[in-house]
Amino acid sequence: MKSRRWCISSRDYDAGERVECTYIEIEQVAHTYAVVLSKPAWLWGAEMGANEHQVCIGNEAVWGRESADGNEALLGMDLVRIGLERANAAEEAVDVITELLEKYGQGGSCMEDESNFTYHNSFLISDRKEAWLLETSGKHWAAERVKGGYRNISNQYSITTKIDKEHPALREYAQSQGWWDGETRFNFSTVYSFMTTARIEASGSRYCEGKKLLKKSNGHITAETMMDILRDKDSGINMEGTFLTTGSMVSVIPTNQALPGVHYFTATPDPERSVFKPFIFVKNVNELKETSSPSYGADDPVKKKPRFQSKPDRKHLLFVKHELVAAALQSSKDKGKKITESMRKLEKDKMTEMEKILSNGIEEPDLLADLFTRSVREEMAVYGKS
């Protein structure tokens, strides 16, 4: 699954238009917002991203009592993109996603092969003033508002008894399945999970480890803190092997409406050996050619039935360069150290540059139209010197 980074401009649509998601078509809205996405190259949706109103959404796979197998419908990653394109606040994104979830359901393979790898989804959704945690099981869902502190998601349910919004039949359905007696206090995680919350907390999972790392820095969490957490391999957050971490994102969103949000993306696998590069929403953003994968249109094996009969080359230019450097990092300790130091220096310089913008605002927007592209080219120049 190759990570790909896209920036899509805002757009108006005519009445009756439809939008083709990964597997199904749904009705289009009159206006969509500009978005920046980190996405698997083969599908329509995204694992994470942000929009021009500084709404940010990321998703994670979750499994519970209810089977995730079923007909092709909306992927959780489709819902991430739709939420960003249609919502100007975090709570509105919750409403957009849940309305479509209830109408169309979620389903379909989440990998570019015939394995039929399926799951339900959890979403972490934020804007300038608050965040929401949204967790789903089939068409059912629960949402919790987060007004302060820290919160993380991983591959398990974590909403317990604090539920601020929910599917109207969430509890009735659980009772009909024999998961809840209708009398004890309703705990979403306990009722819909395979395991009790207590067992999950004791399991030493990615969720628990992430929670510990956030708690350690609570009150002084910075962009650098988040990058360090995303790079952590001992916790399992930075995954290796079959389910390699293919892309990472950190966003800094000021509460002051006059200041821009800064969104850092790797656009390459394994954040430990990647550079977080900044993106800011301004008018006339340049096309992100170096991190856009090839498009195969109607000839794409994902679009033809039966699906996934072949795998085209989806590697973008930065990915190809990054692969070569990753091999160099592994082959020579001294050379690897030198390359890593150069990459970290570039990242630090970019963050210092962004701190000024986060404090003072944007003076010349046109100079930021190629910010991410310029950063990618500087990263590739570092690779070239190696």
Automatic annotation (TrEMBL):
Name of a matching Pfam family: Peptidase_C69
An annotated GO BP: proteolysis
InterPro entries per UniProt: Peptidase_C69 (IPR005322)
One MF term in the entry's GO annotations: cysteine-type exopeptidase activity
PANTHER family reported in the protein's UniProt record: SECERNIN (PTHR12994), SECERNIN-3 (PTHR12994:SF18)
Assigned protein family: Belongs to the peptidase C69 family. Secernin subfamily.
Protein name: Secernin 3
The organism of origin for this protein: Cyclopterus lumpus (Lumpsucker)
